[in-house]
Amino acid sequence: MASLTKLLTLSITLIYYFSSSSPSTATTSDLIHQTCNTTAYYDLCVSSLQSSTTTTTKAGLATAIVTIAMSNATNTSSYLSSTTSSSSDPALKSCSARYAEACAALHGTLDALAVEMYDYAYLQASAAGECARTCREAFGRRRPKVAYPAELARREEGLARLCTIALQIINQLVV
Fold it and tell me: Which positions carry the signal peptide feature in this UniProt record (predicted)?
């Protein structure tokens, strides 16, 4: 009888161990692929989320991608701040302000996600993407016209794509 109890205890322990350790990784990976499959930038979505999260919820994925977007916006804002300190270019100063606004909007997105206000999170993430896009417009308004720096274009595209992914994931939470 004692050996039957030990065998039963061992069986339950093994079942618990194998059911709780492996599937959580598989579940996270499956959730990432399933969720990213509905976004416009599948590869960017998957690579970003796989390297930064272990969540098993779509809300957690939304939070993770917004955090990545906020890091991108913060890095660009810092880059622009260091560039504008040695320049009096009004277009660069305008871009620096826009990226600071994008950071604030993404912070608002995280706050809204934390309290499950998904409609507001969507609006904030949308505003963040728009802030980055207006940076290019600042260069278009300059007279004489000044070329949009390639580094800024690359950074803008990255943030725009991350914001698009965030919007598409948040949209899944709203429904």
Answer: 1-26
